[in-house]
Here is the input.
Amino acid sequence: MSVTPVLPLAPRHAVTIAVASLVCSLFLLGTSPGLAKELPGLKALTEFQDVFVDIAEHVKPAVVNISTGGTPAAPRPGGERFRQRPDSPSSGSGVIIDKEGYIVTNNHVVGDAAEVEVRLLDKRKFTGKVVGRDPDTDLAVVKITSKTPLPTVPMGDSSQVKVGQWVVAVGNPFGLESTLTVGVVSALKRENVNLSRYEEFIQTDASINPGNSGGPLFNIRGEIIGINTAIINFAQGIGFAIPSKMVQEVVPQLIAKGKVSRGWLGVGIQAVTEDLASQFHLEREEGVLVNEVFEGEPAQKAGIQAGDIILSVDNAAVDTPTSLAKAVAGLTPGKPAVLKILRNGDPRQISVLLTERKDEAETAEAVPAKTPESVLGLNIQGLTQEIADRLKLKDLKGVLITKVEPDSLADRGGLKEGDVIKEINRHAIDTAEDFRKASDGLKTEEGVLVRLIREQRGLFLVLNDK
Here is the structure.
């Protein structure tokens, strides 16, 4: 007969089980307060409860309500999947981070307002000046001036946060001021949530609702480990917070100059899928694939080519497009960065002199956002011999999809980056110009028939806006 060994519990695990057992006992017995005092573990439960009471008393004075009659920031990618804010006028939360009166909140809370109303727990009201905003991380900084000391809370280190740790969210959901909710960290480094350009979210099940946006997420020491930014509209117990490490990188620049300067490489990139790894003769999915090199940008000048696979930036490994974008954006424009790449299976190192990323960077190959292609929600480029050879296409007729906007008509219809469009509504698409003409005036409510090549196989898809 085999016996499963019983391992000793760590003290914190023992306390947790004792607390859980006591809660169950109280529930099952339906006990009176007098009897409860006699139950074992009540002291531990009370001490556990007092931790959150102490946190509330310590942090709530520094959490503020922010409201503005201005226009909220434009909706983020993701469509109706996410519900970040209540109806206009825009309102949300923020947190005072220093005695000078600087408040961190979300960019989508302040919108395009130059000034906002800030209300403290003690009912004091201030006119706050929006001193800086960064749509790429959905962060903004508001400044208020007070003749008396302001309550503040410290920043914590989000890099030390672990899944399963207790967290506390404080904010003003649905206008209910100074609401505190408790939960745990349910995941870390969430990317591809399509809320902002640079994502590394802390996921939590602490209850977050419209009005919590911009409010802090605390650890049980009362330190800010994140700024709450969104919830999934159709789910319960799934919220996202911008990690404090990212906040600490962005906020000083917003205070100093009102915006953030980021490095710019000048390439189109995509994830290395299993199929792409095979096509590029890789043993596993690794690095980030360059699918486009923009004319006249740092990457082209340094000799980077479409088909290169970037493995690291200044010795920091990258394995997703988001991680590469963040790595480059975190570097100083005007300084060189060393990229480790694979080209045709051969490792190389290339030094690239980064420039500053511009908010409205466009290239000859990428389709600007306001062109007819935005009806479908995708960007394309014409085929070159190199791309055709890599994708094993028989000719240069068609256009390559380089980007599909989340929750767009193209996305909902199943189009993907790397697809080659050959026809739209039975009209041949040989060039990018053909695509632009075919896209102009499309009646999407009637459905759009697309024939494409995906992984050397023909496929018809119907894009339907109904």
